[in-house]
Amino acid sequence: MEAETKGTEKTILEKITGKLTKAQQELDELAVQLALGKAEAKDKFEEVKKEFRTQVSELKHKFASSVMQEMVNVSKAKFEELELQLALGRADTADAFDEQSKKILNSLQALENEIKGKFKQSIEVDSFSQEIEAFKLKVEILRLKFLLKKFEVKDSFKEKMNDASRVIDKLKTSAKEKLGSGKEKYDDFKDEVQLAYKHLRKALESL
Length: 207
Known about the structure:
The protein is an all-alpha fold and 207 residues long. Helix content is 81%, strand content 0%. It is flat.
């Protein structure tokens, strides 16, 4: 049973660092594609919305099939409102993007508040929190593209992305060291995770 528990915790820690690495790679790739004109912001916005809507739907189904079913029942309206906003049509102009993104982020904030205010911390909730952070950062990159029409990936962006990489690598090392030490829960790494996303946001601010 102990071995099984450690194996489960290791999977949790791997998920934490894996999501951070994935978020950094996707943000870096998105910024580069938009800067080089290899992708249209309106097309990428649709991709980002569709992917996040899938993640929201998966989380809702996970809760519905678990002991956390009460969560879905209580938060059903907010889940559905967020899914609805994510399913709205294309934003072909800066004004349409601004309107859509504000409605999406407001719905997302309402769901976040519901989850954090009424339910215990769990790996599902923590994992979704990371997806939320990554989604918000992608929307911020797209907002810059819609507003500025053109931006470039500066050296400062690359440097700050490297800073984020170092924080993530440090977290990976720390996670491995803490396995079996009794400090193996997401909560033990929350500060490091928040720091990593803070560095990612700083990178975006340099665009």
